[in-house]
Structure formats: structure tokens, C-alpha cells
Amino acid sequence: MSTESSPDRIYVVDAENRPLAVMSPEEVHAQGLAHRGVLLLITDRRRRLALRRLPADHPLHPGRWDVAGSGHVVADEAAEEAAQNRLPAAAADLGDSLRHVCTLAEGAGTGAEIVEVFEAELPDQAAQTLSRDLSLLFVDRDELDALVSSFPDQLSPDLLTVWRTRLYERAPS
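Given the sequence above, the corresponding C-alpha cells read:
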């Protein structure tokens, strides 16, 4: 196994999430190999879920709504560290309050990823700052249900996985 590590190299893992090799994400995806990912669910004090609009030049899902943070866990990076690195700038100080929600096994709506799911609640000031960002949207459970039933083509696969597996409902109320 290569020990080379950079932001564009990720672990290929076995069914028990043990590293087997280090490759580029493009190679891993092209070959359909199991690898590690992270989802970050951010809520405000009213338990509304923060969604972010992916940029128009996003390579896979341009313009779709997604969870606040998601992506690969790069080689030699812990899952919690990967989640912290995906916090919006206004919420960067939440790193210490991240809570591990669960692990989604490969195939649980994740493709070939073994995904660690983390959740954090925004303090009021951070939520107010983020609510002014037009690329972010806060939705409650009913609004998320309505988005999924009316506009599933406007939502990322990660957000649909959150809805389908009821991850948003697992977070404490």
C-alpha cells in the first residue's frame, strides 16, 4: 500500500473499512471500489437542517441542493477531521461539538462509500449569519419531505440518502 497522502488521494477499503490501497478518487470511482466518505448534517436550534446549493460547475450534481458538507475522507485523515474541514466558515468553531450519528455501510444509498455521518447544532449567531447566504437554505422535516416528493431531481444523492435513511430524524430533537 502506498503511504503517499494528498487531498486528491483516498483509501480503498475492504468490507470492514480497513485500508487496502491509496488511489485518486477518479480511479476509485471508475473502478467502483469501496472507499470512505463523510456527511455533515448541520441544524439550527429549531432543528432545521442546513442545505447548501452546489455550484453550477459542480462536476456531478451542478445546482442541486445538498447537505451542508460531504465528501471523501482523504488518506491519513480521520473521519471527524474530514467533517470539521467541511464546516462552513461561519460555523468553523463547531468542530468540538461534532457528534457522530452513525456509519452507513457500502450500498446503503452510498454507492461504494462507507460513510461516517456527523451532526452539529449551530449557535444562534452562526445560524443568522448562514441564513443570509443565498446558497444555503434551512428546512424542517416537513419541508424536506415536500422537497423530496416535489423536486427530487433538484436534490443531491447524498441529501436523498439522508432523507431515505431518515438520518435527519435520528438527530436529537
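The helical segments are 25-31, 79-85, 124-131, 141-150, 157-164, 167-170. Try to locate this feature in the C-alpha cell string yourself.
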